[in-house]
Predict the structure.
Amino acid sequence: DIQMTQSPSAMSASVGDRITITCRASQYISNHLDWFQQKPGKAPKRLIYASSTLPSGVPSRFSGRASGTEFNLTISSLQPEDFATYYCLQHNTYPYTFGRGTKLEIK
Amino acid sequence: QVQVQQWGAGLLKPSETLSLTCAVDGGSLGGYYWSWIRQPPGKGLEWIGDVNHSGSTNYNPSLKRRVTISADMSRNQFSLKLNSVTAADTAVYYCTTGWASWGQGILVTVSP
């Protein structure tokens, strides 16, 4: 199975901060990497697909970048509604695998 | 706007079969893979498996012996069955189409 190493596992930040979350794949996955945001009691919401594409309706403060097997999710200016848990997902090779998540908390 | 609804039993006893169904409204099963995901309480997400419009399936090897996923194109529905459940299968189960639209999630608890 492809391992997705996500870091950090948790972080605290302030409104207005710029933060970056990283996922590193144990094997080549092309750009088949999505990012999800999950709030307590809710289903995940896709923020980024194909490593860097924003679906319609996702604010432009979210961005994704890929470099080889390393993928980053950046939030340019944190808003109160962004405090949540974030997951990456590789869907290049079965079985699909998620990162362990990053819990983003208010400082 | 695609809406996904899911339903099924939320309380099972050990050794019983988990059975959940998802239906899509406002879209179609065609052209996507439909996945099932689960999340144990307080933990991360685990991909269970998927099915496409032709009925082709893929399963997580960790669950493959116990899982069956099927699709009913005529009803725009797809289903998950997980046999011989144990307490370790207690989780919120989600369905999703193409990773963009998700069901609301169902907490399935396995308890004697």
About this structure: The first strand of chain A starts at residue 4 and ends at 7. Chain A touches chain B at residues 1, 34, 36, 42-46, 49, 55, 87, 89, 91, 94-101 (CB under 8 Å). Strands of chain A lie at 4-7, 10-13, 19-25, 33-38, 45-48, 62-67, 70-75, 85-90, 97-98, 102-106. The CA atoms of residues 85 and 103 of chain A lie 4 Å apart.
